[in-house]
Amino acid sequence: METKRLVIVAVGGQGNLLASSVLGEAALLSDIPIRMSEIHGMAQRGGVVESALVFGDAESTIISDGEADLLVGFEPAETLRALGRCNSQSVVITNLAPLMPFTVNIGMGKYPDLAELQNLIRSKTDRLIAFNAAKLAAEAGNPLAVNMVLLGALTQTGVLPIATDTVKEAMQRKTKPAFLDSNLKAFDLGFAAAGAA
Hints:
Number of strands: 6
Radius of gyration: 16 Å
Structural class: alpha/beta
Low-confidence stretches: none
Number of domains: 1
Strand order of the largest sheet: 2-3-1-4-5-6
Helix content: 40-55%
CATH architecture: 3-Layer(aba) Sandwich
């Protein structure tokens, strides 16, 4: 298969690593070679968490500037910060519900305007799918399921050669049974939102 490179960025606590684990499991279930790496940074203090996933034959998990086929951002400013990894053919999916950094909350920084952020991403990439994933997670009955909403959106794009049913099977294997129903609902809501975008 053609190699596909995915970057996922989030703020600590948003579930980036679980989403990466589900995708890794789905790739294994599909007999697709997968390489993954993670950068945790200051995640426990609200810092960035980044995952790099390379599907197909590849020597490394390093995704250099301009190499990402897909960028999924759990937080809008983090999506913008990672935009350099994309190119004019990249697909970008971003949650539009901001988590204000400490510097903004104390008046020492300014949060980017969401309309300008979307315009900038659109001008540099092939496709932007942007919606409030936090709202859909709450609608699914689990406000923490932003990761599963965005996983649904990612699956809907069809950029990765992984079937929807396979991703759902991986979710069953990787998520706690108590959250499975709400996670599946969140996934379906994200899938539908991406289809409408």
